[in-house]
Amino acid sequence: MKGTHRWSIFVAAVALIAVATFLVSGQAGRALADEEGGLGDKIAGTYLAVSENGAQILQISQDGNLSFIFSIQFSGDGALGESFSDTLGSWKKTGIREITAATVDLTFQSGPVFFGVAAATYVIKFDQKFQTGTVTCQGRTFPPGVDPFDRGAIPIANSEFTCGGPQGIEFHRIPIAGKKDDHK
């Protein structure tokens, strides 16, 4: 019995040292940041990008969903000169202040004629205060009847598109009503 008791004290002491090392190293804070109050909490909100040619709204949800609304989407300024619907997708954390999203939108030819599904990958990098997100993307449009996420899916010829160029498009968080505007 004495040997078992000593062994238990030794195991408890080693476990206590391991926990103390974990807490002092800061790893516990990082683990908790990913669970509660993690990146989703920090980036959730509505963002706006305004340019001379139009505007874009980005909505990011804490749960991993996002959507874009573009002022040009019904003007025929989309891929291949066609119009398109709102862009919807899901994001995952890919860096300390970075997410990557897979998105889709519906593309229309000559107004009401369904042309296909555009699939894009967006990368969004946030500033240190999570008030600005810089967005880049690349994608392709797939014809009707083709699931863009099937491995063998063949896109419409010359339908590749990018957004934001090398510097990206800068989106600024819309302040929450009644809350101090931090980003100015």
State the main characteristics.
globular, alpha+beta, 3 helices, eight-stranded antiparallel β-barrel, Lipocalin, about 180 residues
Structure description:
The protein is α+β, with helices and mostly antiparallel strands and 184 residues long. It is globular, with a radius of gyration of 23 Å. It has an eight-stranded antiparallel β-barrel with strand order 1-2-3-5-6-7-8-10. The model is unreliable at 5-35 (pLDDT under 50). It has two domains: 2-35; 42-173, Lipocalin. It has helices at 2-25, 27-35, 39-43; strands at residues 45-51, 54-60, 65-70, 83-84, 87-95, 98-109, 113-126, 132-142, 161-163, 169-173.
Could you give the order of the helices and strands? HHHEEEEEEEEEE
Known CATH architecture of the largest domain: Beta Barrel
Shape: globular
CATH top level of the largest domain?
A: Mainly Beta
| Biggest sheet: strand arrangement | 1-2-3-5-6-7-8-10
Annotation field: number of helices? 3
The main β sheet shows up as: 8 strands, antiparallel, barrel
Reconstruct the topology from this structure.
Layout: H1 2-25, H2 27-35, H3 39-43, E1 45-51, E2 54-60, E3 65-70, E4 83-84, E5 87-95, E6 98-109, E7 113-126, E8 132-142, E9 161-163, E10 169-173
Antiparallel strand pairs: 1-2, 1-10, 2-3, 3-5, 4-6, 5-6, 6-7, 7-8, 8-9, 8-10
